[in-house]
Write a structure and sequence with these properties.
Blueprint: H1 2-29, H2 40-91, E1 95-101, E2 108-114, E3 133-134, E4 147-150, H3 154-160, E5 164-165, E6 172-175, E7 194-199, E8 215-219, E9 226-230
Antiparallel strand pairs: 1-2, 1-6, 2-3, 4-5, 4-7, 7-8, 8-9
């Protein structure tokens, strides 16, 4: 009885062991998967394509960065003029804003200052005056990256009939206690107002702007109205000569 039962169980288990062997052999016969990777030619082709794309994109990126610098300088010019007007109204004192391109660093600079209580004149262009601040300092604008020009120097503009770049002549706008232009700045209004403009220099130059990149802030009325402009709106017309 015991032997017959054992034989039956053995006979039932044999087909399973037999059928399992082909499965194991099939697994062993499966081909090995190749390892992923790139050939040297593929790498060279990709590098060449990236170089071509970079060469195409570089000029556009450079133009974008330069225009961003000009826009930042122009925004700051507007801000300092608005600040000077606001301080003049609050303190009931005359406030001036002066501009220049610094001699050694060749960077556009600005300074805001009130009239002395004793009515003595402050000359920001005098040696030793150290309150000047770089325009566009948040973008770390370097030498010659942005040109600053104005039509605030009447005599210079009568001579060249164009915007004055890189000049340290008296380029100042003064607001009275009401935020309007004082008699010092008023005669310079001319046709298009007082203009302070920023632009990208033409390659290889330090005093010639690319006209299409110009952005400016204009004081258009005696009351001190401020407007922003670009391109042709920033063209300077010299005030008429005194009779």
């Amino acid at each position: 009885m015991l032997n017959s039962a054992f034989l039956k169980r053995l006979s039932k288990s044999q087909p399973n062991s037999v059928t399992s062997k082909p499965e194991l052999s099939q697994r062993k016969s499966l081909p090995l998967q190749p390892q992923a990777g790139f050939t040297l030619i593929e790498v060279i082709v990709v590098v060449l394509m990236l170089g071509i794309l970079a060469a195409i994109a570089a000029p556009s990126w450079s133009t974008f960065v330069n225009r961003r610098r000009v826009a930042a300088v122009n925004d700051e010019i507007l801000r300092v003029l608005q600040e000077a007007q606001s301080k003049a109204k609050k303190t009931k004192l005359e406030y001036s804003v002066s501009f220049r391109t610094e001699d050694t660093s060749n960077r556009p600079q600005v300074v805001i200052y009130p009239r002395n209580p004793d009515d003595t004149v402050i000359d920001p262009y005098a040696a030793g005056f150290d309150a000047w601040q770089n325009l566009g300092k948040e973008l770390e604008i370097k030498s010659g990256q942005v040109l600053l020009g104005t039509n605030l120097d009447v005599e210079a503009n009568r001579a060249v009939n164009n915007v004055t770049y890189d000049s340290n002549a008296n380029q100042t706008i003064t607001f009275d206690s009401l935020g309007a232009l004082t008699s010092i700045s008023e005669p310079n209004l001319g046709t298009n107002g007082l203009i302070i403009t920023a632009a990208i220099p033409q390659p290889g130059t330090t005093d010639t702007a690319i006209d299409s990149t110009r952005k400016c802030v204009r004081v258009t009325t005696i009351l001190g109205s401020l407007q922003t402009g670009q391109g042709a709106e920033c063209e300077v017309t010299a005030p008429p000569a005194n009779p």
